[in-house]
Amino acid sequence: MNKGFLYSIKKILRGPGKTAREFVEGNRVNHYKPILLVFVVAGISAFLTNTLIHPEEVMQRYYETQGTEVPKFMHLLMHIMLKYQAILMLLSVPFMAFFTWIAFRKWGYNYYENIVITAYSLVCLQVLTTLIVTPLQFFLKGNLDLFMKVPTTISYLLMFGIFPWFYLDLYNTKNAGEVIMRLFLLAVICFAVFMLLCIVAGVIFGMYMVKNNIDPNTFMGIKPI
User: Fold this and answer.
1) Is the separation of the CB atoms in 59 and 77 below 8 Å?
2) Which end of the chain has less Cβ packing within 10 Å, N or C?
3) CA–CA separation, 71 vs 51, rounded Å?
């Protein structure tokens, strides 16, 4: 427990921002490489989710109780996210690091150091989500209404709690109000980029459906009356 994967996880759970700061500042001997840590943690999370929860089956049962079918786009999206969760999470690191670098660019860490910082923040979020949300999903999968509401709500609460904790711990010498304001700026940047990507994806998807003469109702799983 004094080095490697478990050591890094233990340190992250005790002080995620401090752990990231120590690694960036050169205390790396005992730590698991942060990028590899992201991949391994995401892989473990995906394995547990697919093995214990079977979310695609649960989603299918939920829509059957609603008298409809799972929308094809949702089924496809879920399949991709579950199958390639580790890769997708790994690919998100450099993009999120760029946004955090913009939001905190005057506070001493360059872009490459922000890649490490972002990796640690995502690992912290993923580990706590796996420890808290995955067991809830397992025990609630027999109650479809609760399964669809409770874990999702807790996931959002974790996200809105972990990132402030992480960055307040990382920048522990800075004023807490300033840290929160920069986190708010980060959230605005991420939201703006997300909306832009949604618009672009929607336009491309719409053009694809028109070109291939695909009925939107059929694709959405809506049966004609």
Assistant:
1) no
2) C
3) 23
